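User: Structure with zinc ion, tokens only please.
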Amino acid sequence: MKTKLLLASVLIFSLSCTTTPVSGHKALLLTSAATENQQGEEAYKEILTKEKVVTGTLDSKLVEEIGKRIAAVANQPDFQWEFKTLQSNEPNAFCLPGGKVAVYTAIFPYAKNEAGLATVMGHEIGHAIARHGGQRMTQQMITSGLLAGAGLTAFSKMDPTKKAIAMAALGAGVTYGITLPFSRGDETEADEIGLVLMAKAGYDPREAVNFWDRFSQAGGSAPPEFMSTHPNSEKRREHLRSLIPKVMGDYESSAKLGLGRNL
Ligand SMILES: [Zn+2]
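Assistant:
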């Protein structure tokens, strides 16, 4: 029985192992990109009805501008990009599969300028490009069985618990009170992709290290959710610093906006 199970797992793995874009890492995916994108869109629509969407402010315009610049260099023809600002006391941001991005207003003081905001958005978009949401859905399907068949089901047809877990797996669980941290490997991969994207979009990649520096001071007695899902160690900043020389060429040949405007 065990052998059969093992064989089945090996078979599933060899059939579903996908190479993620940009970094070229191998990943196990039982969901299709099309399904993930469709679920991302559904989740986004629902979140926008539950949260307060901010429009017409300089900050919300910058979120859109930066998002469009990153989208222009991200090479994701299947994404239907959208960039929204959500009013919140929680410093947070996410990008759902298919390019549905949300930035929470409380993260602006840490972002400080356009390059800081591009760091956050590039990182979150990196998770979506590398399909980390789909990988977490896959893990949930295998380990808990809770999402059995969920890869094929519309959110509207799921019971509330399954839906909340699926939302969390995709990266938008905050609204539903559930957050799942990405693995350290996923975090590193999103940092790498994000850094390339911000440099190509014209933002000084050196500001990425400064952003995480500033954000590390957001601790206090009740550290924000984003902090617990994004462990902000000196190691992370060290790794980013080591990557900067590799992306300076991309930055030098971009439109070079430096740090951009202050938020
Ligand atoms: Zn992350």
